Amino acid sequence: xxFKIGLIRGDGIGPEIVNEAKKVLDxxxxxxxxxxxxxxxxMGGCSIDVYGVPLTDEAIEAARASDAVLMGxxxxxxxxxxxxxxxxxxxxxxxxxxxxxxxxxxxxLRPSKLYKELSSACPLRKEAAxxxxxxxxxxELTGGLYFGERYTKETxxxxxxxxxxxxxxxxxxxxxxxxFEVAGKRxxxxxxxxKANVLDSSRLWRAVTEEVAKDYPDIALEHMLVDNAAMQxxxxxxxxxxxxxxxxxxxxxxxxxxEITGSIGMLPSASLNETxxxxxxxxxxxxxxIAGQNIAxxxxxxxxxxxxxxYSFDLTEEADRVDNAVQAVLSKGIRTGDIWSEGCERVSxxxxxxxxxxxx
Length: 360
Ligand code: NAD
Fold this sequence. Notes:
The protein folds into 2 domains: 1-115 and 264-360, Isopropylmalate Dehydrogenase (3-Layer(aba) Sandwich); 123-133 and 145-260, 3-Layer(aba) Sandwich (Isopropylmalate Dehydrogenase). 40% of the residues lie in helices and 22% in strands. The protein has helices at 14-32, 45-51, 57-64, 92-102, 126-131, 169-184, 200-213, 226-235, 247-259, 299-312, 316-331, 349-359, and strands at residues 2-10, 35-40, 68-73, 107-114, 133-140, 150-155, 158-163, 189-194, 220-225, 242-245, 268-272, 278-282, 334-335, 345-346. A 10-stranded mixed sheet has the order 2-1-3-12-11-4-5-10-8-9, sandwiched between helices. Strands 6-7 form a two-stranded antiparallel sheet. The chain has a two-stranded parallel ribbon with strand order 13-14. A hairpin with a 5-residue loop joins β11 (268-272) and β12 (278-282). It starts with a strand and ends with a helix. It binds nicotinamide-adenine-dinucleotide. Nicotinamide-adenine-dinucleotide binds next to α4.
């Protein structure tokens, strides 16, 4: 099959980690006879250096014309880089917000998996860590409290701040459908997280999610209150498959789920719209402290490329092959510095990419 992939290498370690993911994609296309065509797209600090803005309209059009976009990371050292002397709307991160909005990316997927080989980095109790976990948080990204009406007023010398949490049923339905579809490609369980004992928006969330569930009879749906979910994530994370939740709850829970794996360089992510298009990127940032040294961990970006194969291209076997190759490399004790431990072989960014390609 033929696909066009936009590549946003970005800043810091971005180009290094994207190179390795591209190498892995080329191994996959070679093995399975697919044709992946790439187009470089500038975004972030590197775009500011050339065009004076973090994302041009032409760059958005190039992304739109691609079947999917694979991104490294953007931004620099926020204390020393001249990019951060610019007004907020001209800084590197503004490019990311702009592209998400322009492409209507409303669903954010963040898998959080504890590999047996890395369980010593997991900060949870030994019993929970030994069981391992493999979950995916599906977070609504363009509605809710962060996008509602907000203001601060002063009445009789007393200041009051107001933020509005609003969801309509269409916004809930489209993200719930994504969650059930993704669960269908995993272990077929959706845990929808809300605060339905207090919030109207959560009661509508729960009702619409149940309506959607009727179309997916082979997928189990359970509801959980957000305070309990925060607790269950550290107590018994193995119980979760797909977690479906609104914007703010997802913001908080996805960081909690990332932290309990203990290794940021291992975590991929995806942002999807209503079509098959997606923007795929590692969960970490541009790591300016280690940029240009060929020591960054490329696995999160390689796993992001695997998510692209799975969710945008529907190439399940190929995606499994990449995931299994990463697993095999870890089992052999091959590690970049961030996940290295006594007795393992320490490799560079490019050597890690080569090791994954060899397994493919
Ligand atoms: P960061 O994630 O870049 O780095 C935090 C720590 O994790 C650093 O010590 C870094 O060396 C390490 N790290 C991150 N990714 C790694 C990898 N793949 N391999 C090995 N170690 C890795 O977070 P930060 O320092 O807070 O931010 C740096 C820049 O990245 C800022 O400009 C920030 O705005 C930007 N940022 C961008 C994105 C994005 O592009 N989506 C996300 C988060 C932060």
